[in-house]
Fold this protein.
Amino acid sequence: MTDDAYGLAKQAGEAIRSATGVETHDVALVLGSGWASAADRIGTVQADVELSSLPGFPPPMVAGHRNLLRSVRAHGQNVLVFGGRSHLYEGHPASTVVHGVRSAAAAGCRTVILTNAAGGLNPAWPVGQLVLIADQLNLSGHNPMTGPPPPDDLPGRFCDLTDIYSPRLRELAHGIDGGLAEGVYAGVLGGSYETPAEIRMFAAMGAELVGMSTVLEAIAARHLGLEVLGLSLVTNLAAGLSPAPLAHDEVLEAAQNAETRVVDLISGLLAATAP
Ligand code: 8IG
């Protein structure tokens, strides 16, 4: 990634317009692990683009859907679906991690839905629990707003993170799915999972979810004035919390159960936010 991260995102935004043939996208949807199949069912595919063919996106670590950028028409909106994302633990700088969100903004998006799989710290949540991110702890040691200031046509050097996760979108989401929980997401650098002592520390700090993504993207999105919704699927209890290892079929059942709800939730949100 060059020093000119904003310029590169602008180029990628242009490349998205020409590669998809869609002049303006409205909503970006970033898929975390376990979220891929849901996204195939939210609307009509308009175009598929290889993510790594666009300016600023790194070559794929593994081949497959995670390298796919898909333009979907759903509920009167043009949705830009990112099949995968870059993580700090892969060795990417913060500017690369948030490049998708900035490119989506440059392609016209005013809303971003960030999804992830996460460890759960709330003992009341079973595996398969869907959780709206209410707020976050950026414990990654990185921030996408370090480095050269944004160009003059973009918002300035600092940005307010009060209501980083849109209260309006959370309210809409609760109205669509009454079974959604809410919690604070702790975003860590990763590589390793946590020790039980670290999980006790995060719990004392107010975290109910822990994962290795999302927090930098949410900061970059808010900076550019996007409305952000964060959704976590609890796929494991955080270290030290699980009394007994889960049976594999319980996990599969939980994931399957979540899939239909995820499609309904995202479809409902797209319908509710349509212009
Ligand atoms: I899925 O327990 C998933 N991602 N740091 N800790 C961290 N990331 C995660 C976890 C977890 N589960």
